[in-house]
Write a structure and sequence with these properties.
single chain, alpha+beta, Beta-lactamase, 5-stranded mixed beta sheet, 5-stranded antiparallel beta sheet, globular, binds zinc ion
């Protein structure tokens, strides 16, 4: 009898194990089926590792890439191909975040219920949120600089412009060697998958922390002599700024002012605020993870903490996270999460997916967002020049970041304040020099084109 009970217990255990295994398989099949199907060894879908079906279009139905028996074919114009390289992807799968690679499962038309049947009738048509013409404007405006430009609608999350450089022509891909400086990092989309020293754009975060944790911050005044000794470091400004309060310090971008605020607030407060700003997690853009930003406010001395408070030191920030942060400032502290797929259609152009906007968590309190919004608009009026942004109400913060290279890196970050054109943007130019002039001019050209196009 005892033996019988033991046997039936073993049987019961094995049956449970089988049920559990089956459930796990069905769950993984449901969740990961499309990536299993799009595995490049699947020769129903691929010939020599290249997808055989599927079309990638921009939001205005411009065909950017089409898969066929002989591989991917791209838009007929070389400039369009290069400007849209990192959004569209390449034919060899080297640009991991490009649509040809990252959306292969969706292009195949695989779904849990019907499997990959749509493959045999030409796959799916994926409409990106991108405007390929706007990408061309950005690509031209970057004038050969490495870096990235992006614009998105902070209410819907649609990424309208996303350009990374260096780029190349995917119709005749070059062999890129280790020593080739001009094409170094060409496979990386700098907007999604890289992080850089943010320079003074980071003062927005230090400013947020100060507004919320230092009681008398609004009435406090500070005298900038042009340099501030902190431990064995000297924080320096481009010139002595003299008597300052918070708003003016942000407009003239006073390093000494924000460095001493970071030291006063300490590492824990700075950590809380980069976390609240959403920098530490990164975003998931239709399955593409963006690179998380990174900071180290603790391991250095007060001088290093001071430099971290002005966006130098150990700060490394992802451009996409900065753009969303600018959107949140313009939108009461929360913005829409960025997205790249507008919708998916069948081969016969029947729409089969909905676009659903999703909001970020509260990145900044609504009150503080309102104050920052005003300060960033003042920056444009009092410093960058409203006439440089004709016909728009823009709020912005520039940055000039030193990373040891020959020339400084230029940043320009901000938003358009207009119910009809809710746009946030980021421009980053490696070796671009002074932030507001180099990157500011690129931002202005792209924003003007975006508004002309009705976004
Ligand atoms: Zn100063």
């Amino acid at each position: 009898m005892k033996k019988l009970t033991a046997r039936s217990l073993i049987c019961l255990f094995l049956a449970m194990l089988l049920a559990l295994g089956t459930a796990l398989f069905v769950f993984r099949w449901f969740r990961e089926g499309s990536s299993w199907v799009s595995f490049s060894a699947n020769d129903h879908l691929y010939s020599n590792g290249v997808l055989k079906s599927g079309t990638i279009l921009d939001r205005n139905s411009v065909i950017l890439a089409e898969a066929g028996e002989s591989g991917w074919s791209f838009h007929e114009n070389s400039t369009v191909r290069q400007a849209n390289l990192h959004a569209t992807g390449d034919g060899q799968g080297k640009i991991g975040t490009g649509a040809t690679n990252a959306f292969a499962g969706k292009l195949s038309g695989y779904n849990f219920l019907t499997g990959a049947r749509s493959l045999f009738d030409g796959g799916r048509r994926i409409y990106l949120t991108i405007d390929s013409g706007l990408n061309q404007t950005a690509h031209t405006a970057m004038a050969g600089h490495k870096g990235c430009v992006a614009v998105y609608n902070y209410k819907t999350g649609e990424i309208l412009c996303m350009v990374s450089a260096p780029a190349y022509d995917p119709a005749s891909p070059p062999e890129i060697s280790e020593e080739d400086e001009s094409l170094k990092g060409a496979y990386i989309n700098r907007f999604l998958s890289a992080s850089f020293i943010p320079g003074s754009t980071f003062k927005l975060v230090t400013c947020t922390a100060a507004l919320e944790t230092i009681e008398d911050i609004q009435t406090r005044s500070f005298h900038c002599t042009g340099s501030l000794p902190l431990d064995d470091f000297t924080i320096s400004c481009t010139a002595p700024h003299g008597e300052l309060e918070l708003g003016k310090a942000l407009t003239v971008s006073c390093n000494c002012f924000f460095a001493q605020l970071a030291v006063e607030m300490g590492p824990e407060v700075m950590e809380n605020y980069v976390s609240q700003a959403g920098f530490l997690e990164g975003y998931n853009i239709n399955g593409i993870p963006t690179k998380a930003s990174s900071f180290d406010f603790r391991s250095g001395n007060a001088g290093e903490l001071g430099w971290s408070g002005v966006g130098q030191g150990f700060d490394l920030v992802n451009p996409c996270a900065l753009m969303v942060y600018a959107g949140a400032i313009a939108n009461g502290g929360k913005a829409a999460e960025p997205q790249l797929i507008a919708h998916t259609n069948t081969k016969d152009d029947l729409r089969i997916s909905l676009y659903l906007p999703q909001k970020t968590k509260q990145l900044i309190s609504a009150d503080t967002a309102g104050q920052l919004q005003q300060m960033m608009k003042d920056n444009v009026t009092n410093n960058y020049g409203a006439e440089n942004f004709p016909g728009m109400r823009v709020g912005a913060k520039s940055g000039t970041a030193q990373d040891g290279g020959e020339n400084d890196n230029a940043w320009f970050l901000g938003f358009v304040e207009d119910e009809a054109h809710p746009l946030a943007f980021v421009v980053f130019l490696e070796g671009g020099g002074f932030g507001s002039s180099a990157a500011g001019s690129v931002a202005s050209q792209v924003l003007q084109a975006a508004i002309r196009a009705g976004y």
